[in-house]
Amino acid sequence: MDPRHLMRIAMMARKRPSKAKLIAVTIAVVAALLIFAADKFGLAPDWMSVERMRLKP
């Protein structure tokens, strides 16, 4: 996930503030953080591994 992509989503959500969009952005950010943290501590299942995604061509 490209950080600039997340920034663009956040900017779009801020431009037209709607409850649904705010909730969607929040869920996306929380999910990304959870997966990243789980991967860091080796709790994520193998298919979620950030390392494997990076190694894939």
Compact description:
This protein has three helices and no strands.
Order of helices and strands: HHH
**Residue share in helices?**
over 70%
- Alpha-carbon distance between the two ends: 15 Å
Integer tally of domains: 1
Rounded mean pLDDT is: 71
Structural class: mainly alpha
- Output the number of helix runs: 3
Total beta-strand segments: 0
Oligomer: single chain
Describe the sheet with the most strands.
none
Low-confidence parts, pLDDT < 50 over ≥5 residues? Answer: none
Rg: 14 Å
Strand content is under 5%
Shape type: elongated
How would you portray this structure in words?
There is one protein chain. With 57 residues, the protein is mainly alpha-helical. The chain contains 3 helices and no strands. The chain has one domain (3-55). It is 72% helix and 0% strand. The longest helix has 22 residues, at 19-40. It is elongated. The model has no long low-confidence stretch (mean pLDDT 71).
Secondary-structure topology with pairs:
Elements: H1 3-15, H2 19-40, H3 50-55
Helix pairs in contact: 1-2
Which descriptors apply to this entry?
single chain, 57 residues, mainly alpha, 3 helices
